[in-house]
Amino acid sequence: MPPLPTSADLINALATNAQMKVTHPALRDYLAGVLGADGTIPTALATLGALGGQYLLRTTAYAVTGADRGRVIDTTGTWTLTLLAAASAGAGFSFVLRNLGAGTITIDPNGSETVDAATTLAVGPGASGLVICTGTAWLTLALPGSIMGAARGGNGSAAAPAWSFTSDPDTGMFSVGANILGFTTAGTEQARFTTTGMQVTGLLTGTAVTQSAIDTTANRLMKVGDFGPGGAATDYSGDIDDSALATGFYFALAGSTGVKPGAFTTGFLTITRRGLRVMQVWTTDTGREFRRFFFSTV
What we know:
Layout: H1 7-11, H2 17-35, H3 41-48, E1 54-58, E2 62-63, E3 71-75, E4 79-82, H4 86-89, E5 94-99, E6 105-108, E7 121-123, E8 128-133, E9 138-141, E10 163-165, E11 168-177, E12 180-185, E13 188-194, E14 197-200, E15 234-236, E16 248-252, E17 267-274, E18 277-284, E19 289-295
Parallel strand pairs: 1-3, 2-4, 3-5, 4-6, 15-16
Antiparallel strand pairs: 5-8, 6-7, 8-9, 10-11, 11-12, 12-13, 13-14, 16-17, 17-18, 18-19
């Protein structure tokens, strides 16, 4: 680009006709270098490198050049977009990248330079955003999370889920395989959804499970040992005649109330309910067994 004529060249009252014939074309050539030669707005925007001032569609591997400043680059297919050296691009050099296809566009900086602190960056289907040069490296705005139609990302893994968080990158979601969605925390898979339902790797806690050994809340999962199954019989110090006492295996403590055969105060109590029909089996500490059947009012 020719240099801009000085102010003195333009306002010198003593300038000769020959000198002005040199100065004015130089000014025109300078303006053409900045704004383009035809004087139209599209050409001026393109020449200035205005963001969105140019458009390019690429379907095969491409190397970004200085002429791509501000350009919108649409892509399809699976290939690599090579960036020019950051020092050559200069701080503030930027362009818009969109992945319109179903493949993956890999952004590859020059040499050992980085993009978003990584050696390469995969741009998945539907992603778009701004690619910016800092003068020594590259960064992006919105590419990983942009949405054009359906949002898509890489498969990821339990250790590095595809959908995670800036402050917690090993917690999130990933694709275990076809039609299998995995959930991971601290890099370890905890649960997955498949076409047949949900599978849990870790332990269930919270209000989804029973809250005590005799919790009868509907739709809660029963923990091992509750009501006796899978563990020691549940200690019970209430009224063994309670008609609402749920089916289960209990060890009636000495402090429990209700009708007990003879003078026995402790023993094992098994309750089986079917509607209002209730059967109780009382086995004493000495091995004697008693049974009774009655209709509950609850």
